């Protein structure tokens, strides 16, 4: 039986496709600029193998110009152009990508920059335009052609005069409707912003005629408008530059330009990985906490680029929660994008990158702690709590990554110490890592329970944040030393108690103790004689896992 071809209502199909692929209309410009960049890249690659062709960087550019009066937006490139057949095949057949074919034909694998692959991006133009006119002259051809379409009704191709090789795409921007305005796509500042957002790191200059104002020549106070051609994009992304060529200021400037924060970052991490998965990243450890950091509004994530084109503003999967303060970006050519190029097909590559980044951040924090203690403490004041939450969450599965990064106030030098510092100076007879919890250091120091530990000359960690004790419970032991609250029943300290003495005292005062127990019946389990007090008459202690401080927090929590 003869096979029949599917028929499709192509106009509807095209509309459905365009509107379901893209979440934002503005990406049409990203798509057209990416195509223009691909077209220039193709000349570049041809020139590599063809001696008759030379590639003079200065003659290749992309230009975006808006004409408000006629409601047209034109994107011109000096790229490889399209023959009549190319226009038929690449713009006349939906989902046919000339760029993908080019990559395959030329076996471009390593270091390629060609962006196109799905053969649908071009049609994004119809999200904002009623009519799209493409005039193109292919490299090595004497003829030029004009392709025109009003959406999927079809298209026409006719010969057209064009002096130079390359492509010009003219969009007739839609009229505003009651609900939708399209004027923004004719506004200089908007176009500049869209170019900056998505196409800042396209390798070729993206130019625009920009209006500026200057003082009139023979008048001091009057201003006049003038037009000037400007390159809008930065072109070479800082992350592709050699680390040795970059200064601390360069990284700070990038941080500010990208609006990662208003502070100056404490540290930057520049990563270039050329392994199973290739990627570049620039990460920052901020100094100050964003105002919404410990709130639900705060969104973690890194910018994700594919080949220099922005894919996602905040890719959350790249950062674990405990490093949610890290800012920055990742660029990889190995991501498998989905058709909208706003998401990924699968996340295997992303997971690899995330794992790798996680390790780098940890190492960087560790070296900061070791080599730049003051800076680390500054950082820790802002984000230490997040690290402690990290230890506590996921049932302590992150403790190995994080425990060496923790710091607590200590009774020794009244400053922050690490667990390693604490343990390494423990006297031999000290069995436990002691800690005391309270609202503030001043209050903790007044706790009667601390006296015996202080008397022994043992160091104590001061837990002043709610999360401290919960985090420690997840760590359980550090370098084989258990943690012990000073208010727990057995402190493991020989108090030189004469057992008989205590017992005698206990029975002599039995009546008093029973009386007290009776009054406090629903508040305490027992009332006992203690030898651990020095200057205080009485103290509270606990037997179980949950200390008094933890109980306070637990009972304050909403059910
Ligand atoms: P993709 O870029 O994913 O291949 P598009 O729909 O964006 O898909 O473009 C389809 C094809 O049209 C491209 O692969 C390319 O061959 C051709 N094309 C589009 N724009 C241009 C241009 N400015 N210059 C040369 N060829 C172009
Ligand atoms: Mg494309």
Automatic annotation (TrEMBL):
<comment type="subunit">
    <text>Homodimer.</text>
</comment>
<keyword id="KW-0346">Stress response</keyword>
<feature type="region of interest" description="A; substrate-binding">
    <location>
        <begin position="1"/>
        <end position="341"/>
    </location>
</feature>
<comment type="function">
    <text>Molecular chaperone. Has ATPase activity.</text>
</comment>
<dbReference type="Pfam" id="PF13589">
    <property type="entry name" value="HATPase_c_3"/>
</dbReference>
<comment type="similarity">
    <text>Belongs to the heat shock protein 90 family.</text>
</comment>
<dbReference type="InterPro" id="IPR020575">
    <property type="entry name" value="Hsp90_N"/>
</dbReference>
<dbReference type="InterPro" id="IPR037196">
    <property type="entry name" value="HSP90_C"/>
</dbReference>
<keyword id="KW-0067">ATP-binding</keyword>
<dbReference type="Pfam" id="PF00183">
    <property type="entry name" value="HSP90"/>
</dbReference>
<keyword id="KW-0963">Cytoplasm</keyword>
<dbReference type="InterPro" id="IPR020568">
    <property type="entry name" value="Ribosomal_Su5_D2-typ_SF"/>
</dbReference>
<protein>
    <recommendedName>
        <fullName>Chaperone protein HtpG</fullName>
    </recommendedName>
</protein>
<dbReference type="InterPro" id="IPR019805">
    <property type="entry name" value="Heat_shock_protein_90_CS"/>
</dbReference>
<dbReference type="InterPro" id="IPR036890">
    <property type="entry name" value="HATPase_C_sf"/>
</dbReference>
<dbReference type="InterPro" id="IPR001404">
    <property type="entry name" value="Hsp90_fam"/>
</dbReference>
<keyword id="KW-0547">Nucleotide-binding</keyword>
<keyword id="KW-0143">Chaperone</keyword>
């Amino acid at each position: 039986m003869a096979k029949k071809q599917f028929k499709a209502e192509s106009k509807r199909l095209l509309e459905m496709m365009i509107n379901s692929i893209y979440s934002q209309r503005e990406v049409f410009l990203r798509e057209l600029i990416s195509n223009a960049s691909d077209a220039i890249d193709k000349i570049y690659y041809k020139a590599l193998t063809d001696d008759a062709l030379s590639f003079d960087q200065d003659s290749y550019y992309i230009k975006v110009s808006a004409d408000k009066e006629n409601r047209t937006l034109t994107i011109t490139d000096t790229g490889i152009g399209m023959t009549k057949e190319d226009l038929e095949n690449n713009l006349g057949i939906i989902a046919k990508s000339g760029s993908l074919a080019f990559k395959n034909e030329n076996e471009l694998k390593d270091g390629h920059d060609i962006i196109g692959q799905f053969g649908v991006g071009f049609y994004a133009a119809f999200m904002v335009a009623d009519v799209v006119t493409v005039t193109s002259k292919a490299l090595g051809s004497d003829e030029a052609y004009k392709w025109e379409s009003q959406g999927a009704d079809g298209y026409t191709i006719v010969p057209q005069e064009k002096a130079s090789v390359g492509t010009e795409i003219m969009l007739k921007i839609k009229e505003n409707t009651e609900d939708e305005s399209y004027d923004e796509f004719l506004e200089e500042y908007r176009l500049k912003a869209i170019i900056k957002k998505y196409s800042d790191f396209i390798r070729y200059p993206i130019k625009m005629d920009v209006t500026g104002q200057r003082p009139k020549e023979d008048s001091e106070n009057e201003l006049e408008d003038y037009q000037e051609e400007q390159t809008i994009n930065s072109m070479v992304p800082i992350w592709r530059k050699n680390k040795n060529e970059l200064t601390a200021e360069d990284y700070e400037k990038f941080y500010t330009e990208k609006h990662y924060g208003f502070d100056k970052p404490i540290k930057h991490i520049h990563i270039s990985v050329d392994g199973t998965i290739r990627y570049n990243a620039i990460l920052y450890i901020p100094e100050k906490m964003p105002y919404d950091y410990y709130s639900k509004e705060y969104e973690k994530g890194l910018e994700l680029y594919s080949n220099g084109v922005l894919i996602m503003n905040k890719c959350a999967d790249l950062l674990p929660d405990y490093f949610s303060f890290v800012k920055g970006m990742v660029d990889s050519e190995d991501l498998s994008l989905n058709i909208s190029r706003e998401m990924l097909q699968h996340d295997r590559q992303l997971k690899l990158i995330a794992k790798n980044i996680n390790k780098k951040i940890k190492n960087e924090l560790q070296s900061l702690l070791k080599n730049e203690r003051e800076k680390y403490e500054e950082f820790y004041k802002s984000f230490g709590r997040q690290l402690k939450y990290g230890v506590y969450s996921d049932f302590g599965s992150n403790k190995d990554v994080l425990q060496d990064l923790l710091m607590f106030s200590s009774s020794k030098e009244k400053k922050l110490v690490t667990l390693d510092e604490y343990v390494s100076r423990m006297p031999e007879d000290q069995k436990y890592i002691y800690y005391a919890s309270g609202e503030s250091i001043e209050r903790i120091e007044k706790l009667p329970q601390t006296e015996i530990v202080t008397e022994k000359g043992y160091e104590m960690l001061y837990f002043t944040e709610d999360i401290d004790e919960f985090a420690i419970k997840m760590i359980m032991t550090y370098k084989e030393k258990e943690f012990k609250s000073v208010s727990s029943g057995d402190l493991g300290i020989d108090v030189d108690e004469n057992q008989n003495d205590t017992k005698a005292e206990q029975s002599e005062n039995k009546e008093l103790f029973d009386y007290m127990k009776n009054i406090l019946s629903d508040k305490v389990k027992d009332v006992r004689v203690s030898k651990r007090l020095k200057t205080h008459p009485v103290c509270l202690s606990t037997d179980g896992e949950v200390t008094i401080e933890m109980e306070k927090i637990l009972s304050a929590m909403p059910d």
